[in-house]
Every structure is written in structure tokens, then in C-alpha cells.
Amino acid sequence: MEEILAGDRPFGDCDYIRQRTHLHYRHRLLLLKEHSKGAHLLLTAQDDASGDRHHQVLGDPAVRVATDTWLSAVRGGRELPWPEEELDAVLETAAAQGLRATVPPLAEGAADLVRLHEAAGTWVWSEPRAEVDPLGEFFRRVFSASFQGLVLTSPGGRVRETLLRGAELLHELCPTLAPSALSHVHLVVVAGKKSSPGSVSPGSVSSGSASPGFASLTHPRIPGVIFLSPAVLGDAWQAAEYLLHEAMHVKFTDLEHTHSLLDEDYDAAASPLIRPHWNRARPEASEGWPLDRALTVSHVYTTLALFHSTVAARHAELAGRYGPITGADPARQARRSFDRAQYLLHRLGRHAERLGAGGRLFLRWLGGINEAFDPSPAPEGAYAHLVLDLYEREADTIRRALSRPDAGRADEDAAGLRSAARQEISGCLAVLAATGEPSGQGHELQDQDRVLTELESSGASFRDSAEAFLRTRNLVLRALGPVPPAAFLSPVPHRPEETVAEIVRAMVEESGRRLGALLER
User: Fold this and answer.
1) Based on the domain organization, do 516 and 391 belong to the same domain?
2) Residues 109, 113, 117, 120, Cα dihedral to 10°
3) pLDDT at position 334, please?
4) Are strands 491-492 and 225-228 parallel, antiparallel or unpaired?
5) Nearest to residue 20, comparing CAs of 184, 181, 258?
6) Are residues 365 and 443 in the same domain?
7) What are phi and psi of 129, to 5 degrees?
8) Which residues, 6 or more positions from 336, have their beta carbon under 8 angstroms from its beta carbon?
9) How distant, in Å, are the alpha carbons of 153, 204, 516 from that of 143?
10) Which domain of life does the UniProt lineage start with (predicted)?
């Protein structure tokens, strides 16, 4: 599986994709050279450069952003977000550095050049930088315009060490895939949140979480860069996972630039949406992902299934060098990744006509990988197991919140928890009746409903209500866990147009809405 993801043409082989990316940007510079002296100089400088130097210069994030931004404005007749003189200076500086420097143009201004790994050309943003640093200043402005709630930071000693150890661990776990994926990443930025109120522009996030819980990000208009929060650099295992996760998003951006993944007339704003049932619905968010996002996420989850499977097999062997795993069980994480990838691929298959020729091939390629390596796939169309995964993780979130010394005590929160628990019992009983599961589970749930009624009558405290809520969730998970995924596809008796899965989804979503304010606090 690793060899396929890292080496298959046209979607895995990093050398092939890099060659195509080089041609793509040479073509863009040719289109731009009548408008830009810097584009002309950069093309000339590249004529005598080696393949590695092509990758360093034409793959440099500042060069790519300047080229893409300028050409997009020229073609679309739009106003440039930055002056032409600044964009031209970026390309001209890169051309001059390309003739004499041995590091990427944007890295030239770094006082302390930190490389992510000896086997990768990736470097880590750090301060201070040179006093005269046109590319660095340009990148700062691009970052500020794209992520209004974040700031560029220089990783401190512990964070830097964890990041580098994570890269080392990733190369040990995936010796073929790690260098292939990271070859698409030119720069790693450790970003922090602004102390003043602000938010990350939702349109710029292609992965990770924005605000308030920023974890990791890529930006489709800042190719070759991944942005990580110090919060995901707690240990080498977590750092390795996030590096691979975001590197695959960056690789997908290179694939988008060089392959016909999407239909010529594709518009993300008008795209069909695919609902990721493992994410809690938020009132301010759309009800799903457009096809391009679903494609890149399915690519990432396929890769993470490999990563977590490998961690499950090798963590005991490597714990002495990299420490114990502090996150979720890797075998469960692998199962979760396979499930999510498979669900997205099935849903994407329903909209294959909206993809380009390359996109349809990409979909078949990823589907083939999952079919060959997934040890226990769910039936096509199944998604209730994904909803229940959210349900279980949400309970863990509440359990952690309750352990905090400042956990809420408001009466309305206590009443809300009891009401949500009773609604969940009602939904679960409806599922058990529709699937014909053992009645013993139903009796336990009915007993718990009576307990909740008594707590309601006595005006129970927040703490007692929360503990009863968590007991309810444990009972529901115990009742629905053994139900086979295929059973959730069955129609509801007397309502043939509705499946049992829809009862589960409605139960979890309604409870999630009730708990939304509490979870945010």
C-alpha cells in the first residue's frame, strides 16, 4: 500500500508530479513574462539550472504565490491584492538567487535555516531573518491576509525538537511514503493564535480546525506550505501524523495543478456537497464538503489508514525511542480512517460526471487501494457507524470538560443535559425496535429514563445530571455497537422511505445541537 501511494504514476510518483509541476510553472511564467521583468529573468535563470534547483526555485512558496496571483489577475481582469512592483521584485529576487544560492529563495533570508529532515528539502520558518528580506516580507503579508486570527511564530526549543523527532519517526514508520509526501512540502510554519479576538477565514482552510481550536491547516493559494499549531506537537507520534496528514493535502494541490481532476467548468461554490457525518454540525458551517475537498480528504484518510495500521504494528517496538502513544488507539484510528475514506469515495462515485478525466482515474485508483487493503469494509451506503463514532467522541469531549475545575454549574445546563439524554434514549429504543435487537438492552435504557425523570423532579445538580448523561451515552453505545452496519440500511417499519440510519443520524444531530453551547463553553 505504501509503495502504491508513494510511487504509482500518475498520482503517487513524486518525481513525476514534480516534473509536471515544473512544466506547469514554466508555462505560467511564459504567459506572464510580457507583464513582468522578473518572470522573464526567472525563466532565463532556470534554463541552465538542474532538476533539483528547478524544484527549489519554481516550487518555492513565495515564487508560486506571486506567479499565481499575478497571472490570475491578468487573465481575470481583476485588481491585484499587492502592487505589481512587489510581485515583480519577488520574481526578480528569486531569479538572482537562483543563479548563486543553494537554498530555496524564501529560505535565503533565514538567519537559522532549520531543515525538517536530512532526507527532505523541507525547512522550518524561524526568526530572526535578514534585515533586507523582500521574499520574507512578502510571505508575511500573504500569511496575514490569509489567516487573520493567526501569527507567524518561531518554534521554541521543545516544539522544534518534537517537530524534528516527528519527521524522523515518520521516515522510520513509512520509509517510502514519508520522503515522497514531504517532497511536496517546501516550508513548515508553526503558527500561533492572536491574543486579540480574530478568526481564520473559513474559505482558506483546507484541513484542520480554524478557530478557536486551530490544529493544522493548508491553504490552496499558498502551495507547498503546511501550518501547524504547537498544540499538535505534543509528542513525536502526533507530530508525525500531522506532518503526513498536511503533506498529503499539499501533494493533492500539486495534483490539481497538473492533472484534470475536476471538470473544466467546476465551481466549488456550486458543487454538490458530501456530508462528513463524523463532524459535528455547526449552525455557521455548510452542510457538507464540495467535491474537490472530498477528493483531497479521501486521499488523506487512505494515507492515514496506512499510517495508523503501521503505528499499531510498531509502536511497542519504537516506544523506547519515541515515548508512549498518548492519543487514541492506533488500531481504532486505522479503522476510522478506512471507514471515512470508503464513505467519501462511495459518495464521490455518485458525482463522477463532475470530475475531469484525471479525477475519475484518481477516484478509481484510490477506490482500488481501499478495496485491496481494507480488512473489513462496511456495506456501500452505510454511514450510521460514522455517526456513532461522532457520538462517542462527543461523550469523551464532555467527560474531559467535566474534569476541569471551572466546569459549568448552571441550572439550564443541567436541565439541557437531562433533556438531551432522554431524547437519546428515545432514539435508541426506536432503532432497537426497527432492527429487532435483544430487548434486554431496551430494559436498561427504560430504567435509565426513569432515573433521569427522578433527577428532573428533584432539580438535580449539574454534576449529577452530567454523570447521568454520560451513563446514558454508555448504554446507547453498548446497545447500538453490536448492530451490524448492514442492519442500519434497513427501512423503518411502516416508513419504507426512511432507513434506520436516519433515525441514528437525527438522534445524534439533535443531541449535538442541544449540547452545542455547552461544548463551546
Assistant:
1) yes
2) 30
3) 97
4) unpaired
5) 258
6) no
7) -125, 175
8) 278, 389
9) 12, 11, 31
10) Bacteria
Sequence-ordered list of residues with C-beta below 8 angstroms from that of 194, at least 6 positions apart, any chain: 149, 150, 151
Q: Rounded to 10 degrees, what is the CA torsion of 325, 331, 335, 340? A: 10
Residue 177, in any domain of the structure:
no
Cell numbers standing for residue 466: 452530567
Structural domain including 295 reads 261-377
* Residue ranges, the chain, pLDDT below 50: 196-211
Rounded Cα distance between 503 and 236, Å, is 40
Domain stops at, among 377, 396, 421: 377
Amino acid identity, position 20 = R
Are both 391 and 511 inside the same structural domain?
yes
- Residue 89: CB atoms within 10 A of its CB come to 18
Measured CA to CA, the distance from residue 372 to residue 498 in angstroms comes to 32
C-alpha cell at 60: 518555492
> Residue 496: CB partners within 8 Å, gap ≥ 6?
none
Q: Let me know: does 314 contact 332? Beta carbons within 8 Å.
A: no
Instruction: Return the percent helix, strand and coil in the chain, to nearest 5.
Output: 65, 5, 30
**Measured distance CA(90)–CA(86) in Å, rounded:** 6
Do 393 and 515 share a domain, yes or no? yes
Domain count, the chain: 2
Q: CA dihedral defined by 110, 115, 119, 122, rounded to 10 degrees?
A: -60
d(CA 357, CA 363): 10
318 and 402 share one domain: no
| Pair (367, 490) in one structural domain | no
Task: Using DSSP, state whether 478 is helix, strand or coil.
Answer: helix
Residue identified by cell 480488512 is: 375
Nearest to 433 by CA among 450, 445, 421: 445
DSSP string for residues in 267-331: -GGGS--B--TTS---TTS-SSB-HHHHHHHHHHHHHHHHHHHHHHHHHHHHHHHH----SS-HH
Rama region for 414: left / alpha / beta (φ>0; ψ in -120 to 50; rest):
alpha
CA distance 333 to 328: 7
Residue with cell 499587492: 82
Written as nine digits, the cell of 443 is: 430494559
**Which of 326, 343, 377 marks a domain boundary?**
377
**How many angstroms separate the CA atoms of 236 and 136, rounded?**
29
**176 within some domain:** no
Cα–Cα distance for residue pair 486/483, rounded to 1 Å: 8
